[in-house]
C-alpha cells in the first residue's frame, strides 16, 4: 500500500523516486524535515519514510508555506537538472559546429549523433547506488553506481542494465565467538524506489528466455531513475515461472555454476531484450555502444548477433558489427576471479530447444573457450568471450591494464604484451556521494585558502562524528552477539576523537590481507597503546558466504579486537555497506590498504577517503601505484618476486607497515606547533584535497570513457553497416586462410656510414631490404614493419618504435615481394631490430585486432642478424 499524498505534497513522490536524492544534500534535508525521527528509522530512505508518515503530519505539511516553498524549489531544481544541457550536450554541440572528422565516416545529420553515441547501454551484475537499494556486494557494484551517477551529472546518455536480487547480497552479523553469520532479508520491490515497466495498455512487461527442453523463463523489468540515467533491473520472481526459475534472481553471487550461468544469460540476453522494449515504449534512442562491466554480461553480444542474423546478416558479419560497438571492462587481475563454465553446461543451454536457436552451438562455444597456450580447453571463460566480442577493452588502472595485457596475451599470439589491445581507464569515485557535507560545502577551491586551524578543526569534527557512529554500531553488534546491557558499559570509552584514526574496510578475499596488521600482535599492541602517540583502527569487511578461509580471517581479527586490553583502540564493525562507508571515510585520518601486489585492480576505497582529506597508507597497487606522492601519504614497501614464499613476504611487508606507522605516520600526526596544530599533517591534508581529489573523480573517469572508448566505438558502429561488416568478415576469412603462407623470407641491412669494429654511431641509418611471401594476399592487405629499440638483458626489444617499410617490387619469380626503408639509429646503447608482417584494413581498430603476425623464422633471423621478439 503506497501513501496518497495531499495535492500540495505530490512532488515528494517524484523526488523520492529519483535516486538523485542519494547524492543531493538539499533534497535529503527536505525529507528529513518531514519527520526527523522517521527519517532516522527509515535509514534515510524517502520511500520508506513516506510510507510511514502519519496522515496528520502530512496534512500539517500541506499547509506549511515555508515547507511548500522548499518543496517547490527542490522540484524545480530536479527539473533543471534533468532537462538542462550539461557537459555532454556541450560536446555534441561543439562537434556539430566542427563537422565530421577528416577521413572519418560521415555521421548522420543529427545534432544528437555527431561523433558521440546517441545512447550507451551499461551492463553490470551489481549496482551500488544507495543503501536503500541494496543490489551490490563490493567495489564492482559501487563503481557501477558511481559510473551511472557521474554520467547523469555530465549528461551522458547512459542507461544501466542489471538484475534485481530478491535477497540482495547478504547482511552480516557475528556470533559470540566472532564467526561471520549471514542473513538474507527479503526485499519487496514495491517498497524500493522502483517502478515496474509496463506496456502502453498497463500490462507489465515480460522478457522471455528459453531454457533447455523448451522451458520458459520470464522476467519482469523494474526501473530505477538515477538522475538522468534509467537503470533497468530484471527480476525472475514472477508467477509465470516455476519454482526453480523464480529463484534465478534470488541472491547476488549465490548458487552453483548453472545458477550463475542462468543469471548471466538473463543479464546479457534478457538485458538486451529489456533495452529494446524500454526504447520502444519510451522513445529513448537505441544504444549505439554496449559497455559490459566485467564478463558477467558477455552474453549481451550473442543476443545482438542473433538480432542481426534474424535481419538477414550472416554470423561472421554480425560478429564484426557487434564487436564494433562494444566496450569490455575487466576488473580482475587473476584468472581465478573470472566466471568459467564447463563446456557441456554452456552447450546444453544454447541451440535447438534452448536459447539462440538460430546460432550454431559451436560458434557460441568458440567465443569463450580457452583455446590458447595455458588455457583449459574444456572451460568457457566469460572474460575471454567479452574480449572476443568487443573491439575495445580496458583495465581499471594503469598497472591493471598492464597486468591484463599479460594475463590475456594468449589471445594475441606473437605480439608482445604491451601491444595487446587492452588499454586502461583508471576508476574514479562520485564525490557528491562520498564526501562529507562539510567538505562539500567548502569546495576544493577554498581548501587552498582555509587556515590551518579551521582545516584541523574540520578534521576533528569528522573524527568525533565517527567515534559516535562506531560506538552506536559496536553496541548493536554486541547486543546481536548476545551481550547484555550491563556488560557493555566499556563501549562508552571506545575510540578517542583526538587519537590518530586508521580505517580499513573492504571485502575479505585472501589477497586483500585483512589480518596483515596482526602479523606481530605484540608490536601492534604497542602501537595501539603508545603512551604519547597511540593509534586506533576501525575495521569492517564481509567474507563471501562460501569462503570459510575469509571467515576465519574475520574471526581472527574479531578475537583480537575483543581483547579487553585493546578493544577501545581496535574495532571490527560487521555489515559493511554504503551507509557505514559514508561515515567511515570522512572520519579517518589514514586509509590503510595492503593487498598482495599486483592483485588490486584499482581499489577505490582510498579514493573516497582522499576526497575527505584522509591520507593514504597503501601498497603501490591499483590506483595508488599511479598517483602516489609523498605529499598525499605513504607507500608500504613490498617484497615482490617469485623467489620469496608467501609467509616470508607477509612478515617483511607487515614489519614495513609497523615501521611506517611508528616512525613516520604517528610522529607527523602528533607533531604539534605552539598552537596545538600539526602543521605538516595539515599540509598533507590540504594537498590531498586540492591536488589528489580532482584526479580521483568519477566525472574524470566517465569523460575518459566517452572520449577514448565510447566515441570511437560509436564511429566504428556507424562505419560497419551490414555491407561494411560483411566486407570485413569476408576479408578476415580470406586473411586467416592465407596467413599460414605469409612469411618473412629474407632480410638485408646496410649501415650508412659503415661501422668499423661493429659499433654503429648515433645518427647512422640502417637501410633495410626485406623479401616477404604473401601467399594469396595482396600488398594492400598487409603492412611490413621494422621494429627497433633498446635490447634488454634477455635479448628482447623494449621501448619499441615501428617503422613501415614500402613495397618496391614484386612478386618476383619466386612469388616474393620486396619492401625497403631506412631505420634511423637514434639511441645509444644496446640496439636491436626485427621485421614483421601485420594485417591492415581500413575497418580494423588496430593492427593486433585479428591476432595475426608473421615474424622471421629462426634461420632467417640468425642469417640476417635480427632479433626474434
From TrEMBL:
Q: Which GO terms describe its biological process?
A: carbohydrate metabolic process
- Residue numbers carrying N6-(pyridoxal phosphate)lysine: 608
* Catalytically driven reaction(s): [(1->4)-alpha-D-glucosyl](n) + phosphate = [(1->4)-alpha-D-glucosyl](n-1) + alpha-D-glucose 1-phosphate
Residue stretches making up the DUF3417 domain: 5-133
Q: Which GO terms describe its molecular function?
A: glycogen phosphorylase activity; pyridoxal phosphate binding
Cofactor entry = pyridoxal 5'-phosphate
Q: What is its EC number?
A: 2.4.1.1
Under the heading InterPro entries, the entry gives: Agluc_phsphrylas, Glyco_trans_35, Glycogen/Maltodextrin_Phosph, Glycogen_phosphorylase_DUF3417, Pyridoxal_P_attach_site
Q: Which UniProt keywords apply?
A: Allosteric enzyme, Carbohydrate metabolism, Glycosyltransferase, Pyridoxal phosphate, Transferase
Q: Which family does it belong to?
A: Belongs to the glycogen phosphorylase family.
Function (record text): Phosphorylase is an important allosteric enzyme in carbohydrate metabolism. Enzymes from different sources differ in their regulatory mechanisms and in their natural substrates. However, all known phosphorylases share catalytic and structural properties.
Which NCBIfam families does this entry report, sorted A to Z?
more_P_ylases (TIGR02094)
Q: What is this protein called?
A: glycogen phosphorylase
> Organism source for this protein?
Streptomyces malaysiensis
Amino acid at each position: 500500500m503506497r501513501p496518497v499524498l495531499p495535492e500540495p505534497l505530490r512532488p515528494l513522490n517524484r523526488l523520492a523516486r529519483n535516486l538523485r536524492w542519494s547524492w543531493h544534500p538539499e533534497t535529503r534535508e527536505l525529507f528529513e524535515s518531514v519527520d526527523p525521527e522517521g527519517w532516522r528509522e527509515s535509514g534515510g530512505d524517502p520511500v520508506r519514510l513516506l510510507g510511514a508518515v502519519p496522515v496528520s503530519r502530512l496534512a500539517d505539511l500541506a499547509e506549511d508555506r515555508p515547507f511548500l516553498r522548499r518543496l517547490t524549489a527542490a522540484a524545480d531544481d530536479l527539473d533543471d537538472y534533468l532537462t538542462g544541457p550539461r557537459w555532454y550536450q556541450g560536446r555534441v554541440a561543439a562537434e556539430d559546429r566542427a563537422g565530421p572528422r577528416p577521413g572519418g565516416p560521415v555521421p548522420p545529420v543529427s545534432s544528437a549523433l555527431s561523433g558521440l553515441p546517441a545512447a550507451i547501454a551499461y551492463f553490470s551484475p551489481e549496482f551500488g547506488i544507495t543503501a536503500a537499494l541494496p543490489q551490490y556486494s563490493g567495489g564492482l557494484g559501487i563503481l557501477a553506481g558511481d559510473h551511472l551517477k557521474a554520467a547523469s551529472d555530465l549528461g551522458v546518455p547512459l542507461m544501466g542494465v542489471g538484475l534485481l536480487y530478491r535477497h540482495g547480497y547478504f547482511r552480516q552479523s557475528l556470533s559470540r565467538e566472532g564467526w561471520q553469520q549471514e542473513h538474507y532479508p527479503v526485499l519487496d520491490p514495491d517498497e524500493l524506489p522502483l517502478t515496474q515497466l509496463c506496456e502502453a495498455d498497463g500490462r507489465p512487461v515480460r522478457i522471455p528466455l528459453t531454457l533447455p527442453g523448451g522451458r520458459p523463463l520470464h522476467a519482469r523489468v523494474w526501473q530505477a531513475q538515477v538522475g538522468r540515467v534509467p537503470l533497468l533491473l530484471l527480476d525472475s520472481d514472477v508467477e509465470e515461472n516455476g519454482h526453480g526459475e523464480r529463484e534465478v534472481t534470488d541472491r547476488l553471487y549465490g548458487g552453483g555454476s548453472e545458477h550463475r550461468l542462468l543469471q548471466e544469460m538473463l543479464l546479457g540476453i534478457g538485458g538486451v531484450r529489456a533495452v529494446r522494449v524500454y526504447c520502444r515504449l519510451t522513445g529513448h534512442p537505441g544504444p549505439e555502444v554496449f559497455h559490459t562491466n566485467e564478463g558477467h554480461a558477455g552474453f549481451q553480444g550473442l543476443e545482438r548477433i542473433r538480432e542481426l542474423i534474424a535481419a538477414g546478416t550472416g554470423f561472421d558479419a554480425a560478429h564484426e558489427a557487434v564487436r564494433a560497438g562494444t566496450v569490455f571492462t575487466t576488473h580482475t587481475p587473476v584468472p581465478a576471479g573470472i566466471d568459467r563454465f564447463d563446456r557441456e553446461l554452456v552447450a546444453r543451454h544454447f541451440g535447438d530447444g534452448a536459447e539462440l536457436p538460430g546460432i550454431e552451438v559451436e560458434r557460441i562455444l568458440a567465443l569463450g573457450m580457452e583455446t590458447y597456450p595455458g588455457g583449459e580447453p574444456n572451460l568457457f571463460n566469460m572474460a575471454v568471450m567479452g574480449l572476443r566480442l568487443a573491439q575495445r577493452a580496458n583495465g581499471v588502472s594503469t598497472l591493471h591494464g598492464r597486468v591484463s595485457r599479460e594475463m590475456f596475451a594468449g589471445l594475441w599470439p606473437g605480439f608482445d604484451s604491451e601491444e595487446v589491445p587492452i588499454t586502461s581507464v583508471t576508476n574514479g569515485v562520485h564525490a557528491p556521494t562520498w564526501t562529507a557535507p562539510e567538505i562539500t560545502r567548502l569546495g576544493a577551491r577554498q581548501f587552498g585558502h582555509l587556515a590551518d586551524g579551521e582545516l584541523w578543526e574540520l578534521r576533528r569534527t569528522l573524527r568525533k562524528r565517527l567515534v559516535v557512529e562506531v560506538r552506536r554500531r559496536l553496541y548493536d553488534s554486541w547486543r546481536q552477539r548476545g551481550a547484555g546491557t550491563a556488560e557493555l558499559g566499556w563501549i562508552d570509552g571506545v575510540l578517542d576523537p583526538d587519537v590518530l584514526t586508521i580505517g580499513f574496510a573492504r571485502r575479505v578475499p585472501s589477497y586483500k590481507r585483512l589480518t596483515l596488521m596482526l602479523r606481530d600482535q605484540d608490536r601492534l599492541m604497542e602501537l595501539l597503546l603508545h603512551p604519547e602517540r597511540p593509534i586506533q583502527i576501525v575495521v569492517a569487511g564481509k567474507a563471501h558466504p562460501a569462503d570459510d578461509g575469509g571467515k576465519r580471517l574475520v574471526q581472527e581479527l574479531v578475537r583480537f579486537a575483543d581483547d579487553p586490553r585493546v578493544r577501545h583502540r581496535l574495532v571490527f564493525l560487521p555489515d559493511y555497506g554504503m551507509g557505514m562507508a559514508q561515515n567511515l571515510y570522512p572520519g579517518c585520518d589514514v586509509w590503510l590498504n595492503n593487498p598482495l601486489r599486483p592483485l588490486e585492480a584499482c581499489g577505490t576505497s582510498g579514493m573516497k577517503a582522499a576526497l575527505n582529506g584522509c591520507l593514504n597508507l597503501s601498497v603501490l597497487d591499483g590506483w595508488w601505484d599511479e598517483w602516489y606522492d609523498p605529499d598525499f601519504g605513504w607507500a608500504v614497501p613490498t617484497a615482490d618476486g617469485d623467489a620469496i614464499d608467501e609467509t616470508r613476504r607477509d612478515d617483511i611487508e607487515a614489519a614495513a607497515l609497523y615501521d611506517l606507522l611508528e616512525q613516520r605516520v604517528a610522529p607527523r600526526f602528533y607533531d604539534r606547533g605552539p598552537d596545538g596544530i600539526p602543521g605538516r599533517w595539515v599540509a598533507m591534508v590540504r594537498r590531498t584535497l586540492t591536488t589528489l581529489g580532482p584526479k580521483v573523480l568519477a566525472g574524470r573517469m566517465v569523460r575518459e570513457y566517452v572520449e577514448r572508448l565510447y566515441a570511437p566505438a560509436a564511429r566504428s558502429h556507424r562505419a560497419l553497416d551490414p555491407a561494411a561488416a560483411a566486407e570485413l568478415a569476408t576479408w578476415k576469412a580470406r586473411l586467416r586462410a592465407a596467413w599460414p603462407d605469409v612469411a618473412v623470407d629474407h632480410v638485408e641491412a646496410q649501415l650508412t656510414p659503415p661501422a668499423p669494429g661493429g659499433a654503429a654511431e648515433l645518427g647512422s641509418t640502417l637501410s633495410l631490404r626485406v623479401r616477404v611471401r604473401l601467399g594469396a594476399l595482396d600488398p594492400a592487405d598487409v603492412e611490413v614493419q621494422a621494429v627497433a629499440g633498446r635490447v634488454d638483458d634477455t635479448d628482447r626489444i623494449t621501448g619499441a618504435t615501428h617503422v613501415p617499410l614500402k613495397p618496391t617490387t614484386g612478386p618476383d619469380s619466386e612469388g616474393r615481394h620486396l619492401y625497403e626503408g631506412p631505420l634511423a639509429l637514434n639511441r645509444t646503447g644496446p640496439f636491436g631490430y626485427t621485421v614483421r608482417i601485420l594485417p591492415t584494413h581500413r575497418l580494423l581498430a588496430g593492427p593486433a585486432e585479428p591476432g595475426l603476425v608473421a615474424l622471421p623464422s629462426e634461420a632467417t633471423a640468425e642469417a640476417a642478424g635480427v632479433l626474434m621478439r
